[in-house]
Each structure stands twice: as structure tokens, then as C-alpha cells.
Protein 1
Amino acid sequence: MRTFSVPVLVVGCGPVGLATGMFLAHWGVRPMLIDKRDPMSAPPRAGVSLRTLELFRSVGLEPALREVGWEGGRPMQTILKEAGVGATLRRSGLPPRYTRRLETCSPADHRLLVMQDQVQRVVMAELPRRGGQVRFDTRLLDVEVGDEHVRARVGHVSTGEQWEITADYLVAADGANSEVRERLGITVPDREVLTRLNTAFFRADLGPVTEEWGTHFCLVHNDRVYATLLSKNGRDQWSSHIMDYPGKPEELTELSTDRTIELLHAVIGDTTIPIELHEVNAWEAAYGIASSFRKGRVFLAGDSAHVQSSAGGLGMNTGIQDGHNLAWKLAAVLHGHASPALLNTYEPERRAAARASVALLRSGR
Ligand SMILES: Cc1cc2nc3c(=O)[nH]c(=O)nc-3n(C[C@H](O)[C@H](O)[C@H](O)COP(=O)(O)OP(=O)(O)OC[C@H]3O[C@@H](n4cnc5c(N)ncnc54)[C@H](O)[C@@H]3O)c2cc1C
């Protein structure tokens, strides 16, 4: 079996793994990143927060993100409507004094909206230029944590070929159902399912509705559906969390294409608008924090360490911030600028952040 060595192996090329790789490369560590599939095909679930924009700005990615993102109206504003093109029931958002603070508190642009897939594409284009190696179609099969190294057995998904990677450290950014976490015997003891819902990603030309809303985020409540309607690009790309409808089963249930389109028409409020459905997923929005974020030389980051439903848009952002916290510390230790004891600060700092984001969501539910 072929064997080679890298300073850091990052498992998972979702937004957290890619961002972690990017931060490591920025601080002079050449990581290897692997993913069992091509994560660029995943739908744009999450959007970046102001703090995440600041972190990307600090590694020189702001111009590239500005090119792909869009200005989505005033941030943290929500509109409640009978339907996307229907009557407005309520508007809510930050009081003007806080909005003014948002405008001046950061060097990053608080209006800029960048979606998960755009972040992933920008990082993917940049990472190899900074010395990172990325391999898709490559799955972590086994991991052995030693005192001096981590030994990972990985396999090419298409051909079945296997090889071994020896790394000084491994970052498990392999998502909510983390296989690394399971292999290390780390559990998520208090996982609580908040709701079961269906999320649709689709194309529809609704005209300049976001201008009328003054935001990209609309909540819809009528007698046929309770859902969100989120603009992904200010034009024709949308997602909708379909949270409730008459007769919705308790258990997790897939929706047929026809039923999804029927519900989306109820969300939009116009049955004549053509809908091109990209994807619809049934999923459980849950809270949960792993019993440990670390086992020796292996660290969990992102959804593998904590999940916090999708409300509030904190999942991806908290995860990218884990990666930032971990990357500069790993770089400092690998370059000999700090003792490995520095790495002990990762878990308490990021556990506090995960707890805070879960608490925020619980208080708002
Ligand atoms: C519908 C929905 C809407 C959301 N909206 C928001 C939002 O608005 N804002 C927000 O911040 N968050 C949001 N989230 C949460 C956000 O999508 C996740 O927090 C984020 O994707 C987590 O990123 P990650 O990189 O940790 O994991 P993932 O994106 O799940 O990536 C994990 C990667 O690991 C790979 N992998 C898994 N196992 C292996 C293995 N053994 N070997 C190799 N590769 C492996 C997978 O293929 C995958 O590509 C939402 C989530 C959902 C479901």
C-alpha cells in the first residue's frame, strides 16, 4: 500500500474543511484535503455572516467573494407575508441604531451575501495556488491516533485503490454524521431534534420581489403552507424550508416532485410561475454538541463537532470559525512557534461558541 506524509490531513471538503485548509495554507502549512464525493455539487444551503467575511478578508479572499456575491438588502431583516408575491403581514428587524452600528463596526461589507457553494468555489480555486492539495472521490476508511502521528487509511471511491497517509494532525470536517467521530468513539449525547422539514432548491423568475421586501429573507404563512422563501442571488435562484402544511406527517417524509411544486406555488402565491426544481431534501433540524472536540492529534470542526438546526444561519459560520481558531494554532505548533499545549485552548473556546449559538437558537424558537 502506498504511504505518504502530510502535516495536516483535513477530512471533508464542505465549507468548513475547505476554509480550514485555506487558513492553514495562509499560515504556511500545506494541508491535504480529501472528500468522498465532489462537494461542489451540494446545494447552497448556508450564507456567510459578517464575522466569516472578516475572516476570509484577513486571508485576502474579499475581492473574489465580492465578485461572486450580491448585496441582499438590509441585513437581519425579515418580512412575513401571506405569500412571496402576496400581502405583507409584518416586517421585523434590527432597530435603526443597531443597523447603523452594523454599517460601521466592521471593515467587511455587512450587505454582502455569499452562499456556501460560492465560498467553496472561491476557496477551491485559491487553495492549490497556496500549496493545499485537494482530492475528491477519496474516502477516509480508518484512522489510528498515535502519540507522534495520525495514520489514516483512505480509498479511492471509484477504483477501490487504497493508500495510507501519515499526518501530524487530522481535522475531521466530515459533517453531522462524522465517520471519524464515530470511529474515535466520540458521541453527541444530547442531540435533540427540533423539527423535521423539507428544503427545496429551485429556479423561478419572481421579478424584483426582493426589492419590494427590502431583504432576501421572507417567511410565508397561509392556510396551505408555512415556509421560508430565501433568495440566493437576488434574481431567480431560491430555497424554501417547507416547515408545515395540512396533513404533514410526524416522521421524516420525502416529498414527491409534484407535491413540492404544489407547495412552492403556495409559498410563492402564483401557480402560473414556472418552477425548475433542482433538489428537495427531507432532513431533521437538530441541536447537538459532541462529547469531545478532540482525541489526541485529531480535532473535530464544524458539523462533526456541533449542529444547530439552520435557524439563525449559524451552522456553517460557527464551523468556519472553528477552522480559523484551529488553523493558526496548528500552524504555530507545526512551525515551532508555540508549544503543543496551545492546542488545548481549541476545545474550550469553540465549545463555548457552539453552546452560545445553540442557546441563541433555543431562546428564539
Ligand atoms: C437546509 C439547510 C440550511 C442551512 N442553512 C444555513 C445557513 O443559512 N447558515 C449557516 O451557517 N448554516 C446553515 N446550515 C448548516 C450548514 O449547511 C452546515 O453547518 C455546513 O454545511 C456544515 O459544513 P461542514 O463542512 O461541517 O459539513 P458538510 O457541509 O456536511 O461537509 C462534510 C463533507 O465531508 C465529506 N465526508 C463525510 N465523510 C467522509 C469520509 N469518510 N471521507 C471523506 N469525506 C467525507 C462529505 O462528503 C461532505 O462533503 C444549513 C443546513 C441545512 C441542511
Protein 2
Amino acid sequence: MPYAEQKVTSLHRWSKSTFTFKTTRPDGFDFKNGEFVMLGLRPEGKLIPRAYSIVSTNQDNHLEFLSIQVPDGPLTSHLAKVDEGNSIWINTKTTGSLTLEHIQPGRHLYMLATGTGLAPFISLIRAGEVFKSFERVILVHTARIEQGLVYRDELTSRTGEQFLYVPTVTREPFETTDRGADLFRNGELSNKLNLPLPDPAQDRVMICGNPNMNKQMTEYLQNNGWTMTNYKGVGNFTVEQAFVLQS
Ligand SMILES: Cc1cc2nc3c(=O)[nH]c(=O)nc-3n(C[C@H](O)[C@H](O)[C@H](O)COP(=O)(O)OP(=O)(O)OC[C@H]3O[C@@H](n4cnc5c(N)ncnc54)[C@H](O)[C@@H]3O)c2cc1C
């Protein structure tokens, strides 16, 4: 697989365990908003590649990524220390199931994210096409601690008639301490936002979270009349892993 050597252009730390970094964009590198790409470093010569959702939009000249810092993580323990000007290797092939092509148009689009699973949704929201396909976009971002509510100021400033943002924090006191997926399933989200309950005939759901939340939400939606997008066709909900659990 072809990797292009690029340069890190900036790094912003949100908290001890989360940071955002920007890089140069390889010549001819094209992608759909919401996709992910493999990227990596060569701390000892050999490339350590990992999947990363692209936060920036396909209209930007640079690439932007949001990263966790896993203690002793093979990639992120090095990535968290990169400086402006350092090399980074970015694959030229992108993919993913959170693009507008993976969901039917509809009334309300629910984006459910945990942790760094927020990344692809930032790209979609910044790009704005999503607001042409849906009357309303509702983004629910769940983090363990308040500092994990990355991009909160930007998202808050984008809220309005068509965009609703619901941050939740599960392990610290906060205005909403429920998991986003629970709020969706028990109807409290609709209550809180004064919206009709999500309806598979009209509404759509995109999910990018930890393996547990993805599994629970997929089971819940499939048992309640929703159809997942897969190789057989485009459904009314679509799911991407925000990370995989290593055995
Ligand atoms: C489709 C896809 C898209 C991804 N997009 C992103 C992204 O945009 N940003 C990002 O930081 N990571 C993302 N990841 C995870 C990423 O690929 C790496 O796992 C992560 O960067 C850690 O790399 P590592 O080598 O340091 O540790 P790894 O050995 O890869 O991971 C060690 C362990 O850390 C935990 N972990 C890994 N990533 C995360 C995470 N993001 N949140 C919570 N726990 C985690 C898991 O328990 C994992 O088993 C994505 C993964 C997939 C499959």
C-alpha cells in the first residue's frame, strides 16, 4: 500500500490523553468527508500504521486528525510527542462507512459519537453538505471527562436551527451524565430537544464509538425496525468503529 511522507504542521493538546494534529496533504490525495485513512510513524525505521478518521474536509489544503494517547501505545506514545516539521506517513487510499453515500437522505440525522469517534462528524459538519440532505443534524458526543469534549467551542458556535449539539460526560459531574446511546434509546434525547422520537421511515443514524456502544446500538436499531448500511445496500443507519480492542 502506498504511503506518502508528509510533515506535521501543528499539534494541539486538549488534555493529557487527547490531542489534535495537522499535516500537509499529499498531492492528489482525495477523500470523502467522514472517511478514515491509515497513517503512521517510523520511530525505529519500521512503519507503525493505524487507522485515523479525517477531521478536516476535502476542501482544506491540510489534513487534520484527532488522537487519543494510549499509555505505551505502539503508535500514539510516539505520535503524542511529534513536533512541527516531523515526518508522518499517510496512506493515499481512504475508506469508511460514515460518508453521505452511506446513508439515505431524510428528516433528522443523528450522529452518535464516543471519545475520538467524534472525528468523522466534525468533517461532515464543517463541510456542510449534510445540511442539504437533512432538515436537522443532531450530534451527541459522549466523553468520560469534560476535557474529553474536544471541539466543544467550535460545535457550540455552529449550533442553530439546523444543528443541535448534545455533549455528555459519564465520569465527572456535568449537566448531562448519561451515555448518548442511552439518551437516544430511552427517548430522553427527543424529550430534551423537543423533537419527535427517531423514526426509521424518516430519520437516519450514524454511529462512531467504542466497540460496546456500536454493538449495543446496532442490536437496538436492528430490533426496532432500522436497517444497517452494508454491501447489500444503503440503509437508514451506518456504523464505524472508533477503535478496535486488541486481544
Ligand atoms: C476505523 C478506525 C478509525 C479510527 N480512528 C481513530 C481516530 O480518529 N483517532 C484515534 O485516536 N484513534 C482512531 N482509531 C484507533 C487507532 O487506529 C489506534 O488504535 C490508536 O491511535 C492507538 O494506537 P496505538 O498504536 O498507540 O495503540 P493500539 O495498540 O492501536 O491500541 C491499544 C488499545 O488502546 C485502546 N484504544 C485505541 N484507540 C483508541 C481510541 N481512539 N479511543 C479509546 N481507546 C482506544 C484500545 O483498547 C486498544 O486495544 C481508529 C480505529 C479504527 C479501526
